[in-house]
């Protein structure tokens, strides 16, 4: 029995494996700047968040139809099921697809159909979160959110992602106010490359329910105290942090310190096609470096479900699965 977990920090477009990129490019007669899968994989050495984002946005142009979004979502969910994921809160970047001329209805319906199939086939529950680009004008995010609300697109929440430095959360207050007023959940990337102050802003100005990444909180003791007191969820992505040079090596990763401090941290894969692995690989790397005890692993799994947006009854069912796993180990 695999450790049951919720995956709460996962970008759909970041699950686009090189093989699928090449296949979709061939399907749509798109000429890529590399001629082989190995040539594409050679691009996956990143010096920073921005160097990754440049390739990330270039590659997603192969997603052209509702069927493509269904296919990529099902491929991710199959891997997630194999890794023990029992609930997923999936991010997607609506601006990336709208600006390419795609109909948002095709994007969302393709994703939703796959999510529903995975729930039916494997019992993986789900939420869908639209992440807005922080490097684009906040007015663009606001206009798109208004459209999504008016057209009643099936989303459960909004997030904030992309380039962090120089784009503080305070720029997006109006967007998040509108989302909350319409009953949407709100999360935001903060404190990955950006300073601890961005986490304060996400909490106080955007009023987020969950902080994505958040590892820079350790730079501010008062912030740590607050996050612990409020049990504010932090979705930490270990392999991502290493590949984007936010942390030097896994042995240097702050996750054990965060867990020890009483922070509500959980483990996620972020953009697994680009960062060296899905949930199983993230846990394997952590185990190799830190040899977590059964109790620590159980706490991380418990935190993941407690940090999710599923209702209390479903949450208790998932937590019972975690306890069953713990009792076997």
TrEMBL record:
Domain Adenosine deaminase: 4-324
E.C. no: 3.5.4.2
Keyword tRNA processing: no
SUPFAM superfamilies per record: Metallo-dependent hydrolases
Cellular component GO terms, alphabetical: cytosol
Family annotation (Gene3D superfamilies): Metal-dependent hydrolases (3.20.20.140)
InterPro entries the record matches: A_deaminase_dom, ADE, Ado/ade_deaminase, Metal_Hydrolase
Catalytic activity of the protein: adenine + H2O + H(+) = hypoxanthine + NH4(+)
Site (Important for catalytic activity): 213
Swiss-Prot/TrEMBL cofactor(s): Zn(2+)
BP term (GO), one: nucleotide metabolic process
Residues at the active site: 192 (proton donor)
Binding site for Zn(2+): 9, 11, 189, 270
Annotated cofactor note: Binds 1 zinc ion per subunit.
One of the record's GO molecular function terms: adenine deaminase activity
Protein keywords: Hydrolase, Metal-binding, Nucleotide metabolism, Zinc
HAMAP family: Adenine_deaminase
Protein family per UniProt: Belongs to the metallo-dependent hydrolases superfamily. Adenosine and AMP deaminases family. Adenine deaminase type 2 subfamily.
Protein name according to UniProt: Adenine deaminase
Organism whose genome encodes this protein: Glutamicibacter ectropisis
């Amino acid at each position: 029995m695999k450790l049951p977990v919720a995956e709460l920090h996962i970008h759909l477009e970041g699950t686009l494996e090189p093989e699928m990129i090449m296949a979709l490019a061939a399907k749509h007669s798109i000429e890529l700047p590399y001629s082989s899968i190995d040539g594409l994989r050679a691009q996956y050495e990143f010096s920073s968040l921005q160097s990754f984002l440049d390739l990330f946005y270039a590659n997603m142009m192969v997603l052209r139809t509702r069927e493509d979004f269904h296919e990529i979502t099902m491929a991710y969910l199959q891997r997630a099921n194999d890794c023990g994921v029992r609930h997923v809160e999936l991010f997607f970047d609506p601006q990336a697809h709208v600006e390419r001329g795609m109909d948002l209805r095709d994007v969302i319906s393709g994703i939703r159909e796959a999510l529903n199939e995975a729930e039916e086939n494997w019992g993986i529950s789900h939420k869908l979160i639209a992440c807005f680009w922080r490097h684009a004008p906040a007015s663009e995010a606001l206009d798109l959110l208004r459209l999504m609300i008016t057209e009643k697109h099936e989303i459960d929440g909004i997030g904030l992602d992309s380039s962090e430095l120089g784009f503080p959360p305070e720029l997006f207050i109006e967007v998040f106010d509108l989302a909350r007023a319409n009953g949407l959940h709100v999360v935001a990337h903060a404190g990955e490359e950006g300073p601890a102050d961005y986490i304060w802003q996400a909490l106080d100005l955007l009023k987020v329910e969950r902080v994505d990444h958040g590892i820079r909180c350790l730079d501010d003791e008062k912030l740590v105290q607050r996050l612990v007191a409020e049990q504010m969820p932090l979705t930490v992505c270990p392999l991502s942090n290493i590949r984007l040079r936010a942390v030097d090596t896994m042995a240097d990763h702050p996750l054990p310190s965060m867990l020890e401090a009483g922070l509500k941290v959980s483990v996620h894969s972020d953009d697994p096609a680009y960062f060296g692995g899905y949930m199983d690989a993230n846990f394997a790397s952590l185990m190799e470096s830190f040899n977590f005890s059964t109790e620590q692993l159980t706490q991380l799994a418990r935190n993941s479900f407690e940090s999710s947006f599923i209702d209390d009854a479903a949450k208790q069912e998932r937590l019972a699965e975690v306890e069953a796993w713990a009792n076997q180990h």
